[in-house]
TrEMBL record:
Keyword terms of this UniProt record: ATP-binding, Nucleotide-binding, Transferase
A Gene Ontology biological process term: 5-phosphoribose 1-diphosphate biosynthetic process
InterPro entries per UniProt: GK/Ca_channel_bsu (IPR008145), P-loop_NTPase (IPR027417), PhnN (IPR012699)
HAMAP family named among the record's database cross-references: PhnN
EC number in record: 2.7.4.23
Signal peptide from the UniProt entry: none
Protein name per its UniProtKB record: Ribose 1,5-bisphosphate phosphokinase PhnN
Family: Belongs to the ribose 1,5-bisphosphokinase family.
Name of the gene: phnN
Organism: Ancylobacter mangrovi
Molecular function via GO: ATP binding; ribose 1,5-bisphosphate phosphokinase activity
Length: 195
């Protein structure tokens, strides 16, 4: 059973978590998802009905993303205990949304999280209301952004971009992130404000 107690009244529609909604910001590595999420978080400061998730990742913390670093053992323990309402593997790492997300959704809030296209089906099975924002950019822009991070060699960057999964349905919002961050960031903030 989960480390977070979920009463039957916390669920809506076929046992899915609600009444709040999960907004997953998805897209290829290097699209600028974290940058746009940070921009929207700043613009929407003071909106008590919107929260921004800090993912658990089996990667040391760094300046490129505000996440909670876990080692593989702690991550596996969290999965085994049912602490993570959503978790997935990508690019050799493990990712999860933490147990606090359950409370936010049950309280009726909008939770915004950097997600994965590969986990959208599981998200829809777990949460009553899921919105999808697809952020992307041209391949050469993605490759340049990933190279600038300095985490992977050029061939590893290209391999990562080649294996990106397709979306399983039309997103609620699509952002081509090639302009200044405020242009794309305003689109995300406006979308979230309208939910």
């Amino acid at each position: 059973m989960s480390g977070v107690a979920v009463e039957s009244s916390d669920l809506s529609g076929e046992g899915r978590l609600g009444p709040g909604q999960l907004v997953l910001v998805v897209g290829p590595s290097g699209a600028g998802k974290d940058t746009l999420i940070a921009y929207a978080r700043e613009r929407l400061t003071g909106r008590a009905d919107i929260s921004f998730a800090r993912r658990r990742i089996t990667r040391p913390a760094d300046a490129t993303e505000n996440h909670i670093a876990l080692d593989e053992r702690a991550f596996a323990h969290g999965v085994a205990m049912g602490d993570f309402p959503l978790h997935w593997q990508a690019n050799g790492l493990s990712y999860a949304l933490g147990p606090e997300i359950t409370g936010e959704i049950v309280a009726g809030r909008i939770v915004v999280a950097n997600g994965s296209r590969a986990v959208l089906g599981r998200a829809r099975a777990r949460f009553a209301r899921v919105r999808v924002v697809h952020v992307t950019a041209p391949l050469e822009v993605l490759a340049a952004r990933l190279a600038a991070r300095g985490r992977e060699a050029h061939e590893a960057v290209l391999e990562r971009l080649r294996r990106e999964p397709a979306l399983d349905q039309t997103p609620d919002l699509r952002i081509l992130n090639v302009d200044a961050v405020d242009a794309a960031g305003e689109r995300l903030a406006a979308f979230l404000s309208g939910l």
